[in-house]
Amino acid sequence: MATERDLVVLGVGMHPWGKWGRNFVEYGLVAAKAALADAGMAWRDIQFVAGADTIRNGYPGFVAGSTFSQAMGWTGAQISSSYAACASGAQGMQSARAQILAGFADVAMVIGADTTPKGFFAPVGGERKEDPDWQRFHLLGATNPAFFALNARRRIDVFGDTPDDFAMVKVKNSKAGVANPYARFRKEFTLEDFAGSPIVSDPLRLLDICATSDGAAAVIICTPEYAKAKLGTLEGTVRIRAVANTTPTYPQIRLELPDIATDSNAVVAAPALGFKDSVAHNAYEQAGLGPEDLSCAEVYDLSTALELDWYENLGLCAEGEGASLVRSGATALGGRVPVNPSGGLSSFGEAIPAQAIAQVCELTWQLRGQAEGHQVEGAKVGLAINQGLFGHGSCTILSK
Amino acid sequence: MTATERVPAIDGWFTTSEPYTLIGARCTACGTYVFPPRSGACPNPDCDSMELEPTPLSRRGTVWSYTENHYAPPAPYVAAEPFEPYALAAVQLEAEGIVILGQVAKGVMAADLEIGMEVEVDLQVLYRDTDGVDHWIWTWAPSAPEASA
């Protein structure tokens, strides 16, 4: 059951995902105005703005909460800006939630938007020999898909997964994405389409890897008192049960983006829970909920194979059984626990600082029963999980 | 230029003369290992040491996972033109309890690799700069068979 500490999601809004190369601020404005309209609020009512930053269009200080505040018109609101790569939006959620729970604001907007370059994500320019991100590109050519591929290869060789199992994830997600007006790729793929898809980083093909996209998302959250005063009742509102941002525990023995090496377990034994398991565990603990309570989940399918990992990290199935789970149909719409009913990154492509916020938008629509064409029937609890570079694990749980 | 004057693509991470080894760092107090090598605080949260010493790492390890890049990585990678696919391997060093990523020796492709196979450190040219200087990088190469002579 939700408590008075469980904040309310009052409004959500998105700009559709795509690839137009326009200024990211434009997209953010559309998302912000949509969220305000959804909440029935004016911009001046927002007391705190939590921006999720992007780094490719300038430097983080430029691409921040203040960028959107200025674009919407300065109101003297309180502000924060976060950069945590893929988890930036989740950091924004945490910042807004903490500010409200501390009593410094009643209502806040979390917002993120991005414009992405074509092709591989690459580090920002200049010779930065101390930067692990620069090092892995310059010394090894270890792109993001190469890391996804190392992981996928483990699944094949250790668990017996097949490339078809990975393709099943894309088939499932693309089917869901067709009905989502905010998705960039609204085309259904079949297993047969994979044969013609070029290998990017063996064993992963282009269709296994999520694209980079433009997009924006905004969420307005508030105290239950504020929501009650505004809506007259809390009945049917979407509540925030957990926002857990988690770092690894030493030694982190799983090779993760962008590291060239793992920690050493020669002296200190690895923790019982691996990093990604602990990200979900902490959120479940905060919410007082478990995997059996989930109606649906939005997971970061940067690659098809990674989605199978998340099933296991979330406790939807045992380690090594992710492929069986997707094959069983349990994670498709209409299944036991649909995963990525939005169509996932597979249908969206990644707009980094907006993506974790978009996950919250999707869950909100699911819990309200507003996800027309890709609705999880009777959804009561939804979870969103992702991971940002350098150990920003993040997990959000919402319930009705 | 002799082989002993090879220019490393990054300083201090590996030896440039035989026997080729990666160079990590080891905490002088708790004994844990770190790669890439660095100075400063031990990464073990229960160890207060501020002393990490450079140390050669095991020359041989076993493949933890591998892949093969079919597209030229973006800068700051210096890709050959035309681009030739190459393999990367993440290799487990038993004694150090650490997995280290590296390019696989030229010509050894994903189809030649499997998880658990033994590999060892070798060097190859990563790129030639505009002054014609070769910059060297460590690679993982299939282990030479045990000397039979």
Percent in strands of chain A: 15-25%
Low-confidence stretches of chain B: none
C-alpha termini separation of chain B: 31 Å
Largest sheet of chain B: 5 strands, mixed, barrel
Quaternary: heterodimer
Shape of chain B: globular
Strand order of the largest sheet of chain B: 5-6-7-9-8
Going by helix content, strand content and strand pairing, the class of chain A is alpha/beta
What does this structure look like?
The complex is a heterodimer of chains A (400) and B (149). With 400 residues, chain A is of the alpha/beta class. In chain A, 36% of the residues lie in helices and 18% in strands. Chain A has 13 helices and eleven strands. Chain A has helices at residues 24-39, 65-72, 88-101, 132-140, 144-159, 163-177, 191-195, 224-231, 275-287, 304-313, 322-328, 344-348, 352-368, and strands spanning 8-18, 48-52, 78-82, 107-114, 199-202, 204-205, 214-222, 238-246, 296-299, 381-388, 392-399. Chain A has a nine-stranded mixed sheet, with helices on both faces. A two-stranded antiparallel ribbon of chain A has the order 5-6. In chain A, helix 3 (88-101) packs across helix 13 (352-368), helix 6 (163-177) crosses helix 11 (322-328) and helix 10 crosses helix 11 (322-328). Chain A is globular, with a radius of gyration of 20 Å. Chain A starts with 7 loop residues before the first strand and ends with a strand. The mean pLDDT of chain A is 94. Chain B is mainly β and 149 residues long. Chain B has strands at 7-8, 23-27, 33-34, 52-56, 60-69, 86-93, 98-104, 118-128, 134-142. In chain B, strands 5-6-7-9-8 form a five-stranded mixed barrel. Chain B has a three-stranded antiparallel sheet with strand order 3-2-4, with no helix packed on it. In chain B, a hairpin with a 5-residue loop joins strand 8 and strand 9. In chain B, 39% of the residues are buried. Chains A and B meet through helix 4, helix 5 and strand 5 of A and strand 3, strand 5, strand 6 and strand 7 of B.
